[in-house]
């Protein structure tokens, strides 16, 4: 019996390690073969996969970096890239930075935020998306459809206020059109677009990599801003988080945490 339990533990460890490796970009040998390229993933499955990782990333950034950082005196501002402003990006701007980085690359993946009560008027929900949002706000289920105007396959996901920092920021913003947001409210949608209805394994991994590269790029931009602080205290960058004091995790520490948290869902999506 002890031998059997030991073998089960070893098997579980192996499976767990495999999930983490694959989610971190490690690809099994057979996926590079011609056969793997014949396997197609629906665009809905791929966009759902990357949307899940985005949820993990934004929640971790919002709660651990912004929420935890504010308790240590760290500042976050919508004009964080202004040389006169010594602050980091707010969660919505962190996502916008990821979207901009993706747009610069070769992967035709679109990403943006929309709302019925946006701070930025350009993010106002309109037309078909505004109609679909009514259902999303009611049942919080995603909507997948082909957008005739853009000729892109589109996926809309509920953007939920998952941290106190989201609520307080939106309620107090000088341009806000709604001041009674509460924790858990659907504040809008995170919308993804892609030009094809199916993707090969390589294309699916390229979508995920484009998102992860964007996350790394924006987080690195934040740390570069910190290096130029003249009046504000500079947190120590390394293995520790703001919950431990005036610290920020290094890029590889932050990204590794995201990958581990999203590993199971990512692997499940790729194994369908």
Automatic annotation (TrEMBL):
Signal peptide: 1-25
Residues in Tll0287-like domain copies: 90-192
Keywords noted in UniProt: Signal
Record InterPro entries: Tll0287-like_dom
Protein name stated in the entry: Tll0287-like domain-containing protein
Organism annotation: Wenyingzhuangia heitensis
